[in-house]
Design a protein that fits this description.
Elements (H helix, E strand, L loop, with lengths): L5 E4 L7 E10 L4 E7 L1 H5 L1 H12 L9 E4 L4 H13 L11 E3 L2 E2 L5 E2 L2 H4 L6 E9 L3 H12 L3 E10 L10 E6 L8 E2 L5 H4 L6 E4 L2 E4 L1
Helix pairs in contact: 2-3
Length: 212
């Protein structure tokens, strides 16, 4: 499977690249025809900093108090906060910005403990996610943020297959479907690979993939 990997470089900064693998993959919400490997960008400080700098350019005029991290984006979020608080022409120049991660209870609901809620309550919150395919994870996260009275300042992703949420909140990303024009996401019942009886190459999520 790995021998099919293709390198895709960012239009904004060619030093940032991802590996995409064509095939038949199953996520929690859909089937997709490409696995997008974001591991290097989330785990290597050098590349995480480059991604953070590109995302920060899109939020210099947006008030942000807290970044809520989904899908292992904490390293990028920390560099992002440093970037927007250190640039002189940013509205967040000199600010302290919180980086937090939600917890999941026994019912798999996102929650924030009492000591963390103060970073969400009436705060301008940026949601950071590694990839957005169907938008279900984003919608679930936004419901949680709104439950704790957070103000949605924006949504940032490394890769996004959608431009905005159903409520018209834009999703800013480093990579999108212009970088991978053949990328497709399907409901299980509508997946053409399944209809053609092609085997699933791997089960994928934000942590990576497991071959079948």
């Amino acid at each position: 499977m790995e021998t099919r990997a293709i390198e895709v470089k960012s239009k904004a900064n060619p030093k940032i690249s991802i590996k995409v693998i064509p095939g038949h993959f199953a996520t929690n919400h859909s089937h997709v025809n490409f696995y997008i490997d974001l591991t290097k960008l989330k785990t290597c400080h050098k590349y995480a900093k480059l991604v953070a700098a590109e995302l920060a350019k899109q939020y210099l005029g947006t008030q942000i108090d807290t970044v809520i991290c989904m899908e292992n984006t904490e390293v990028i979020a920390a560099f992002f906060a440093e970037e927007i608080s250190s640039i002189s022409n940013s509205v967040n120049s000199g600010k302290e910005i919180n980086i937090i991660v939600p917890e999941y209870n026994s019912n798999n609901q996102m929650i924030f403990r009492d000591n963390i809620q103060k970073s969400v309550w009436n705060k301008n919150v940026l949601l950071m996610i590694s990839s957005a395919t169907t938008g279900k994870t984003i919608n679930r996260s936004l419901e949680c943020i709104q439950y704790y009275s957070g103000n949605i300042a924006g949504i940032a992703a490394i890769f996004s297959a959608i431009d905005a949420t159903p409520t018209d909140i834009p999703i800013c990303s480093v990579f999108d479907t212009e970088d991978i024009p053949e990328y497709r996401s399907y409901l299980y019942s509508q997946c053409p690979s399944c209809k053609n009886k092609n085997k699933i190459d791997a089960i994928v999520n934000s942590y990576g993939y497991s071959k079948i």
